């Protein structure tokens, strides 16, 4: 065993013990530290055995803590009664496990567990480990902190056009490069520009909620700056679906977080202004043309020279060029939704042959050439829709409970807001709806291929459901 494996093994053991003996801290680490920890902490176990990563070690420790708490706690999920969302999550998890033997290989099975099984476990951790409102706000603040750090990194990478932190060893999907030849798509840490955008979509409404909750002037100003940085990074991701989702989030927040509308507008204006300045300053550097799913490694373009930097001082011409780049991104292959429509048609054709049980994990990539291909007849390796991917892999048996699980936050928010509950409850329900938008809408047009995306979303769902039930019990006992 080499020294790196020894150090990683000790660190992962400590991480697992943290999840076992202080579950809420382990849960916070799972949501907010995993994207960076995965860059450095993994322990190779030899050929044919899955590597022990930060997230897997921590999830194992948290799972043991969850079982132990359910056995001894009087307010455990089983004793207090399962909610409808719990039931659909259990159904999805059960079908996922039962279908694992149908995977085309061990890598496909591991990917299914990582991208769906572990996030569903995160939901139950949120349901079990949050004991009061203070711990709930710790979780919210940790996700906001993660989004701010990723936003700062995104700004750094976009400004320097250099990948400073390569994605973790376990990123399920290959990297891609910008085919528009004028915009830099983020590639570090999260692996894809869209993954940065999805974390920002979680961070923005959480920032709004914490603003609404109130605090000192320093906290309020800090949240304004944080949301501004996230809005700036969201623009720099050039993710059209994420932009639409963010507009919906803002509309919901403007309606329900009325006390802080002015601060919300200030933070968004600052973020957009900063993004505009950066886009006008960053010189266009074409990247190598390559298929969006087949680029084997990250391109590291030359650093911008000093004369180029001096020549790129923002002015009317630079602003015009930035506007043209943005418009190019918005309109690029709009008629086919960036080649998504043929993929979706092919995925539906493939699903129609095995509608109930699906083809098994990983089979859609193996048979891609028979069902969907691009204009150059080169087969796509992804269907570019999380729901269609699950439908092809597991059929209606897997998709239906998963869809119902995702639909519950919207029904709960709509029903609760109609009953005119208290201000705190309304804000929490509005936050639940915003997080649902951040999770559901981007999944329509892409495969959520980074484990942290669903892990964060489902964990937050679990926390909010727990807090809502606690508030109801407090009201009924008063």
What do you see in this structure?
The structure is a single chain. By secondary structure, this protein is mainly α. The chain has two domains: 1-72, no CATH class; 73-477, no CATH class. It is built from 20 helices and two strands. Strands 1-2 form a two-stranded antiparallel sheet. A hairpin with an 8-residue loop joins strand 1 and strand 2 (52-53). Residues 169-181 and 285-313 have low confidence and may be disordered.
Assess the beta-strand content as a share of residues. Answer: under 5%
Number of domains: 2
Quaternary state of this entry equals: single chain
Structural class: mainly alpha
Distance between the termini: 60 Å
Main pleated sheet: 2 strands, antiparallel
Strand order of the largest sheet: 1-2
The chain-level mean pLDDT equals: 79
- General shape: globular
Q: Radius of gyration from the CA trace?
A: 22 Å
* Beta-strand segment tally: 2
Give the low-confidence spans: 169-181, 285-313
* Approximate helicity band: 55-70%
The sequence of SSEs as H and E is HHHEEHHHHHHHHHHHHHHHHH
User: In DSSP terms, counting alpha (H) and pi (I) runs of 4 or more, how many helices?
Assistant: 20
Concise structural overview:
The protein is an all-alpha fold. It has helices at 3-21, 23-32, 34-37, 54-72, 77-80, 84-98, 106-129, 133-160, 193-213, 217-236, 240-256, 261-281, 306-311, 316-331, 340-353, 363-366, 368-371, 386-418, 423-444, 451-477; strands at residues 42-43, 52-53.
List strands and helices in order, with pairings.
Elements: H1 3-21, H2 23-32, H3 34-37, E1 42-43, E2 52-53, H4 54-72, H5 77-80, H6 84-98, H7 106-129, H8 133-160, H9 193-213, H10 217-236, H11 240-256, H12 261-281, H13 306-311, H14 316-331, H15 340-353, H16 363-366, H17 368-371, H18 386-418, H19 423-444, H20 451-477
Antiparallel strand pairs: 1-2
């Amino acid at each position: 065993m080499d020294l790196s494996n020894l150090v990683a093994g000790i660190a992962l053991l400590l991480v697992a013990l943290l999840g076992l003996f202080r579950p809420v801290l382990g849960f916070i680490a799972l949501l907010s530290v995993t994207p960076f920890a995965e860059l450095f902490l993994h322990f190779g176990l030899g050929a044919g055995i899955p590597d022990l990563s930060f997230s897997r070690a921590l999830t194992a420790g948290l799972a043991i803590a969850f079982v132990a708490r359910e056995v001894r706690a009087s307010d455990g999920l089983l004793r207090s009664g399962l909610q409808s969302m719990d039931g659909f999550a259990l159904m999805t998890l059960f079908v996922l496990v039962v279908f694992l033997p149908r995977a085309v290989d061990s890598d496909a099975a591991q990917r299914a567990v990582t991208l769906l099984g572990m996030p569903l476990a995160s939901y139950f951790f949120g349901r079990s480990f949050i004991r009061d409102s203070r711990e709930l706000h710790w979780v919210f603040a940790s996700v906001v902190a993660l989004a701010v750090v990723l936003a700062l990194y995104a700004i750094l990478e976009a400004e320097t056009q250099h990948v400073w932190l390569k994605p973790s060893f376990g990123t399920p999907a290959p990297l891609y490069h910008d085919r528009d030849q004028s915009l830099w798509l983020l590639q570090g840490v999260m692996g894809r520009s869209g993954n940065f955008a999805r974390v920002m979509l979680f961070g923005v409404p959480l920032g709004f909620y914490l603003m609404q909750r109130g605090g000192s002037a320093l906290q309020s100003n800090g949240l304004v700056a944080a949301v501004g940085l996230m809005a700036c990074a969201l623009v720099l991701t050039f993710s059209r679906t994420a932009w639409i989702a963010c507009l919906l989030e803002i509309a919901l927040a403007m309606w329900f977080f009325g006390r802080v509308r002015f601060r919300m507008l200030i933070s968004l204006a600052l973020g957009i202004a900063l993004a505009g300045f950066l886009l006008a300053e960053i010189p266009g550097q074409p990247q190598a043309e390559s298929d969006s799913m087949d680029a084997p490694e990250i391109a590291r373009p030359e650093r911008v020279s000093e004369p180029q930097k001096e020549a790129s001082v923002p002015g009317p011409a630079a602003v015009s060029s930035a506007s043209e780049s943005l418009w190019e991104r918005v309109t690029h292959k709009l008629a086919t939704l960036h080649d998504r429509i043929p993929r979706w048609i092919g995925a539906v054709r493939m699903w129609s042959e095995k509608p109930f049980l699906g083809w098994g994990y990983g089979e859609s990539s193996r048979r891609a050439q028979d069902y969907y291909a691009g204009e150059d007849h080169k087969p796509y390796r992804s269907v570019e829709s999380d729901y269609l991917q699950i439908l092809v892999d597991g059929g209606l048996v897997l998709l239906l409970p998963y869809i119902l699980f995702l639909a519950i936050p919207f029904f709960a928010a709509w029903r609760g807001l109609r009953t005119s509950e208290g201000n705190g409850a309304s804000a929490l329900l509005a936050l639940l709806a915003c997080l649902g938008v951040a999770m559901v809408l981007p999944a329509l047009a892409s495969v959520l291929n980074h484990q942290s995306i669903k892990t964060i979303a489902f964990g937050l769902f679990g926390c909010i459901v727990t807090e809502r039930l606690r508030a109801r019990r407090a009201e009924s006992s008063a």
